[in-house]
Amino acid sequence: MAAAEHGISLEPERKSLLSQHTEKHFTAGEIVRDIIIGVSDGLTVPFALAAGLSGANATSSIVLTAGIAEVAAGAISMGLGGYLAAKSETDNYRRELKREQEEIITMPETEAAEVAEILAQYGIEAHEYAPVVNALRKKPQAWLDFMMRFELGLEKPDPKRALYSAMTIAIAYILGGVVPLLPYMFIARASEAVVFSVIVTLVALLVFGYAKGYFTGNKPFRSALETALIGAIASAAAFGMAKAFNP
């Protein structure tokens, strides 16, 4: 009785403490990942293509036409890839959820032992986790959620995640892909446009790399340099190969 009264008295205190402390965690990891995938490829692939065509002495109109076609095709391909990847995650979660539900029904003792084993891994003693195991057994849905998260390491995916992922990656790819093509829209000679394309794209890669490092918790300046270096190597390789085959 005293324990119950003590628990009741602690409830208002717990709510008060939680209301006073608001944790600020970054929770948009999936969206940022999709943006990084889209913009990174969008900046790099059309950049390399434009540099390669410029090295082959193509006109700005040809480079622009080929670049726009590549951006369109790349956005569709990348978006579809993101959709299928996210859909696969959802399908896998549903499949494992159904399997776990059946195991809880058909093998409750085994599943309860697995709960105890998971809690024991955190250094919780048997007399401490026994009430938790018993409490979960009385709440099948909570038990199921616990097993999905702590045994299988799976979080319930957003049902709209696949569509959002496809759209985010595709739009990010288009936005990134337009950058290296901009100079070709205003400069007729590709040999001149490629110089400005290199400058604009490298600046964009530096800014993007810095932002990527900032949001992912890595060193922003190192991330900026690495991202710009990858883009520079890709475009230089394409330009060099084009010059080698079309001197």
Properties at a glance:
247 residues, mainly alpha, 83% helix, elongated, disordered N terminus
Description:
The structure is a single chain. The chain is mainly α. Helices cover 83% and strands 0% of the residues. It is built from 10 helices and no strands. The longest helix is centred in the middle third of the chain and has 47 residues. 30% of the residues are buried. The N terminus is likely disordered.
Cα Rg: 27 Å
Name the average pLDDT: 79
Shape: elongated
Measured distance between first and last alpha carbons: 91 Å
Please state roughly what percent of the residues sit in beta strands, choosing from under 5%, 5-15%, 15-25%, 25-35%, 35-45% or over 45%.
under 5%
What is the strand tally? Answer: 0
State the gist of this model.
By secondary structure, the chain is mostly helical. It has helices at 2-20, 29-55, 60-106, 108-120, 126-137, 140-151, 161-178, 182-186, 190-216, 220-245. The protein is elongated.
Write the layout of secondary structure elements.
Elements: H1 2-20, H2 29-55, H3 60-106, H4 108-120, H5 126-137, H6 140-151, H7 161-178, H8 182-186, H9 190-216, H10 220-245
